[in-house]
Specification:
The protein has 173 residues and is an alpha+beta fold. The protein has one domain. 19% of the residues lie in helices and 45% in strands.
Length: 173
């Protein structure tokens, strides 16, 4: 299970959220990927979980997604994502993307990536649960055997960074 790091604050994630805004492109992308480095015990054991926001530079409207990467020896095409919401557990089928195939001796594994669109109101509801020094996070499952959690601090930090970016654009959705 991927676990959030309880000692990392909303401010940490706000300041480590990366912004990519290329000239001429209508959208800017913000990502919490650099907020902390996941445990890396070689390519065979790689896992990463983070949030991404895409902000329309004219309107300020944002779309959000959970991004999860993992290595596997059994690639799949689809996965079932389940996640907590204030109304109860939600589910959606998501396409699994495959990256590089790596081999060591006779054993091979693939990097797979799952991205799922998340409603902004869901993230805002969980960001409100953030309290400095108090661990906790938004849980999710990717069937059949992956469970994880995005810390409330990470959610709150990303949303503050998005709101600040909207302010610099002079737009509010």
């Amino acid at each position: 299970m991927t676990q959030p790091h309880a000692h990392l604050t909303k401010e940490h994630f706000k300041h480590t959220t990366t912004l990519t805004a290329k000239a001429g492109e209508p959208y800017a992308q913000l990502s919490t990927e650099k907020g902390y480095e996941e445990t890396y015990d070689g390519a065979r054991e790689f896992t990463a979980t983070y949030l991404v926001a895409s902000v329309d530079r004219k309107t300020g409207k944002a779309g959000y997604a959970l991004s999860f990467m993992d290595t596997t020896t059994q690639p799949r095409k689809m996965a079932k994502l389940s996640y907590a919401s204030p109304e109860g557990w939600m589910e959606q089928q998501v396409k699994v993307k495959h990256g590089s195939r790596l081999c060591k001796g006779t054993e091979c594994w693939n990097l797979e990536s799952v991205s799922a669109v998340l409603p902004e109101d869901l993230l805002r509801a969980y960001a409100k649960r953030y309290a400095p020094g108090t661990p906790g996070g938004w849980p999710f499952r990717i069937a059949p055997d992956i469970t994880g959690e995005i810390s409330y601090a990470e959610i709150a930090g990303l949303l503050e960074r998005v709101d600040d970016y909207r302010t610099t654009l002079g737009v509010t959705p």
